[in-house]
Design goal:
Layout: E1 3-7, H1 12-24, E2 28-32, H2 38-46, E3 53-55, E4 61-63, H3 65-75, H4 86-117, H5 122-126, H6 135-152, H7 157-179, H8 190-202, H9 206-212, H10 216-224
Parallel strand pairs: 1-2
Antiparallel strand pairs: 1-3, 3-4
The structure holds glutathione.
The site of glutathione has 15 residues, from helix 2 and helix 4.
């Protein structure tokens, strides 16, 4: 039986793990859980609330994108998701940690409030998913779902404004890692796989795509990840948008 990857459709850390499994050539089946129901399901099945979680062929379970990628590197060493040089590997691991702890939550805090204000975009985020909810149903449910996700992710208006203000500095940092070769090599490493899906998620919001896609970080995300969902330009207040 192939590994089972428990995901929320469109979740960026789930995309991290799915891509790593593909790169390693490990067969897997996705099990999609609609948000925010995944919180209860994951807690029961894995012990903690978050996706992704994976159940390997031998029954072992693991939760958390970084822990799962480390285990995949152990199980299937090639292609390696870390450089062989220990100093370079340490730099990649630090970029991966930042991508998980700092950048990944920003993606959620920016998406959910924007989606709440633009519920007509909700069906585009459901496209390609396993759970066949009609667009009209998704549109109707979105205010409730997004309100719960906003609460879960502490996506307050203050956090929203602060994240948008911090974004240019974060994009500069990622572009710096691409320039020094920490990110963006031919074979993606753990930090590429952690950071690029958040960029791809941010770029589903056209206001942000316009500011990211032309940069090295935007090109990296577009090369590695094509994700569903689109919120047209004008959704984010111009006063809050990075120059
Ligand atoms: N940073 C962890 C956690 C991922 C995470 O927070 N996933 C979100 C979906 S994108 C989630 O399940 N949130 C539910 C919650 O916070 O209770 C990882 O990369 O695995």
């Amino acid at each position: 039986m192939p590994a089972k990857l428990y995901v929320v459709h469109g979740s960026h850390p789930c995309n991290t793990v799915a891509k790593a499994l593909e790169l390693k050539g490990i067969a897997f089946k996705k099990v999609e859980i609609p948000p925010p129901g995944h919180v209860a399901v994951m807690k029961v099945l894995f012990g903690k609330r978050t996706v992704p979680g994976i159940k390997f062929e031998d029954g072992r379970k693991l939760q958390g994108s970084r822990a799962i990628l480390a285990e995949l590197d152990r199980l299937v060493p090639e292609p390696a998701l870390l450089p062989p040089d220990p100093a370079a590997a340490a730099t990649v691991l630090e970029a991966e940690r930042w991508g998980d702890e700092v950048f990944q939550p920003l993606g959620r805090r920016l998406l959910w409030p924007t989606l709440k204000q633009n519920a007509s975009a909700a069906p585009s985020y459901g496209e390609g998913g396993q759970v066949p909810l009609p667009g009209a149903v998704l549109k109707t449910l979105m205010p409730v779902i997004s309100r719960m996700e906003i609460a879960l992710n502490k996506a307050t208006p203050e956090a929203y404004a602060a994240d948008l203000a911090a974004l240019p500095g974060y994009l500069d940092r990622i572009d710096g890692w691409i320039a020094d070769g920490t990110l963006g090599r031919d074979v993606p490493n753990r930090a590429d796989l952690q950071i690029a899906p958040t960029l791809a998620l941010l770029m589903t919001m056209q206001d942000l795509r316009d500011r990211i896609a032309g940069r090295p970080c935007g090109q990296l995300a577009d090369r590695l990840f094509r994700v569903g969902g689109h919120i047209p330009a004008g959704a984010i207040a111009p006063a809050l948008l990075p120059a």
